[in-house]
């Protein structure tokens, strides 16, 4: 069973696009994308729950991964795929 993926993003952010490409390459079929460029209230909510202003902000299940660099670091450490399977590392 795959963990739910939620990503706060904008349409043109290259880091958002790269993060989505990495997730797709790992077999993730569904990503709940929350567009902060279309809804300023969502950006405010993102900043409140993450303490960060930049996108993407990625959640795997309830775990806040962080941004694109954090996602890449998880993958390089071999922890991304277990997290995607719901095995929080």
User: How widely separated are the two ends?
Assistant: 15 Å
**SS summary, helix count:** 4
CATH superfamily: Glutaredoxin
CATH fold assignment: Glutaredoxin
Helix content: 40-55%
Structural class call reads alpha+beta
Q: What is the overall shape?
A: globular
Strand content: 15-25%
Mean pLDDT: 95
CATH architecture: 3-Layer(aba) Sandwich
Which sheet architecture does the biggest sheet show?
4 strands, mixed
Give a summary of the structure in a few sentences:
The protein is an alpha+beta fold and 89 residues long.
Structure, described:
With 89 residues, the chain is α+β, with helices and mostly antiparallel strands. Helix content is 42%, strand content 19%. It has a four-stranded mixed sheet, with helices on both faces. The chain has a single domain (5-84), classed as Glutaredoxin. One of its GO terms (molecular function) is glutathione disulfide oxidoreductase activity.
What labels describe this entry?
alpha+beta, 4-stranded mixed beta sheet, Glutaredoxin, single chain, 4 helices, about 90 residues
Question: How is the secondary structure organized here?
Answer:
Layout: E1 5-9, H1 14-25, E2 32-35, H2 40-50, E3 57-60, E4 63-66, H3 68-76, H4 80-84
Parallel strand pairs: 1-2
Antiparallel strand pairs: 1-3, 3-4
Helix pairs in contact: 1-3
């Amino acid at each position: 069973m795959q963990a739910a993926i939620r990503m706060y993003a904008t349409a043109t952010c290259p880091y958002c696009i790269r993060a989505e490409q990495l997730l797709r390459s790992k077999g993730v079929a569904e990503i709940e994308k929350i567009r902060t460029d279309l809804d300023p209230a969502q950006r405010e909510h993102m900043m409140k729950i993450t303490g960060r202003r930049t996108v993407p902000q990625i959640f795997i299940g309830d775990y806040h991964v962080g941004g694109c660099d954090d996602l890449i670091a998880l993958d390089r450490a071999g922890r991304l795929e277990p997290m995607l399977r719901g095995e929080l590392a």
